[in-house]
Please model this.
Amino acid sequence: MVSREPSVRDPLPKGDHKVRAVRAMFDAIAPRYDLVNRIMTLRMDVGWRRRSVRSLGLQPGSTVVDLACGTGDLCRELVRAGIAPIGVDLSFGMLAAARTSAPLVHGDALRLPFSDASLDGATCGFALRNFVALEPFLASLARVVRPNGRIALLEVAEPANPVLRRGHGIYFGKVVPRIGALLSDGEAYRYLPRSVEYLPATAALMDMVRAAGFADARRTLLSAGIAQLITATRA
Model:
């Protein structure tokens, strides 16, 4: 029997089902993940990651965990800034495809294998919507990042301008899946635009960051609002 391709009307996975689905998806797209990222963002993702690292404002030699590190893009940017990164990812496929000299850990960002207040900071690129829940993720961050340590969370966003928002919606919802299907895994790149639905409203998200124990929480829109950078300091 031929299995039915997932429909855009199908409910998004939750709980343990989401963990399994996300891990399998990233295992599948790992070999060509970097290539598809560069093409579908017109290489803007490179600049976004560099800005994320600069926003930490940490001294060279600081130790920073990069959560959902994927193939190591942010780890490489951290190394260029003189920072010592540790990459953590749930996907074996992503870790196997990683191109970084940083130590890598197969692990769950909601249950980090680090001592309390042992890290100077944390980064996370385009993964907030892939975690099962944001509150335990932020609580995990707050536990391992030292007081006055910094976090930089990079994620997709929607432009405030209605014309730009419509154009971005068409590109992200229609063009990106076709690029993904051509170069990688079509099902995965149909899921990624829909996964934005997992993100809470901006005010609720920022409240979560502050409630977890981070001060000076700030949200900056990038590239006319198609990406967002959330930075904060551990209280």
User: Anything to note?
Assistant: Residues 1-8 have pLDDT under 50 and may be disordered. The radius of gyration is 17 Å.
